[in-house]
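[Q] Does anyone have a clean C-alpha cell version of this?
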Amino acid sequence: MSEKNREGKRAARDRLAEERERQKSRDKQRRVLIVSAAVVGVLALAAVVGLVAANSGDDKDTSGGPLSAPKGANGEDQLSIPVGKASAKSTLTIWEDFRCPACKQFEDTYRKTIHELADKGQLKVEYHLATIIDGNMGGSGSLRAANAAACAQDDGKFTEYHDVLYENQPAETDDAFSKNSKLIDLAGKVDGLVTDPFKKCVDDGKHDSWANKSNKAFQDAGLQGTPSVLLDGKNIFGDQKNPLTPAKLKAKVEAANRG
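[A] Here you go.
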C-alpha cells in the first residue's frame, strides 16, 4: 500500500473519531437538557403543591350561613369557649383540632390536672377550635367535630363532650368525625346531651361559620400548630429544652395564685 493511501486512511479514521466525539458531545448535551427540563418540571410542580398546601385553609368559605357563636362564647369575635371560674387568676389558652393526634396526646396527659385546677377556681381555660387537619389530610371531620362541640356548649356540656371526642379520636387519616351520626352517637356518652335540638344543631351545621372563623383566627395568629398552649399569654408548650409536665403546669398556676 502506498504512503499516500495510508495517509488517506489515517485521515478518514481521524475524521470518523472526531465525528464520534462530536456525536457523544451532542448526546450528552441532549441528556442534560432532558434532565434539566424534568428537574424544572418537578420543581415547578412542587412549588404549586407547596402553594396549595400553604393556602389550604386560607380560602375556606367562612360565609356558609350567618355566624352563630355558641352560648357563653367570649373573647374577640366570641371565638373562645370558656371553662372554669372567671375570677381565676390564671388563664390557660388552648388551640386544638379534634382530629389532631398531638392534641389527643396533650389532653390525655394534662386533662386531669387542668380539670383539677379549674375545679379549684385557680385556673380558667379558653378553648379555641381549629380545623387544620381537614386542610392537610382532606375531609371535614375537624369542622364537623368543632360544630358538634359548639352545639354541646349550647347545652352547657362542652367539657364533657370535648373529653369524649378526644377519648374516642379516630386515626388522623380516618375521617370518621365527618359523619354527624358518629358525633351524635358519641354524644350519648354524655348524660342528657342527645336531644332533638342538639341533633338538629349538629345536622344543620349551626356553628360551621363560627368554626371556620375560629380557624381563620388561628392562621392569622401565626401559631406553629396544634396544640398551642399559652398560660397568661405566654407559650408554655413545645419547648424541647424545657418541656412542660403536669407537675410544672400545676406549680406555675399555684405560684400565680399565691402571687
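[Q] Thanks! Anything notable?
[A] DSSP finds nine helices and five strands in the chain.
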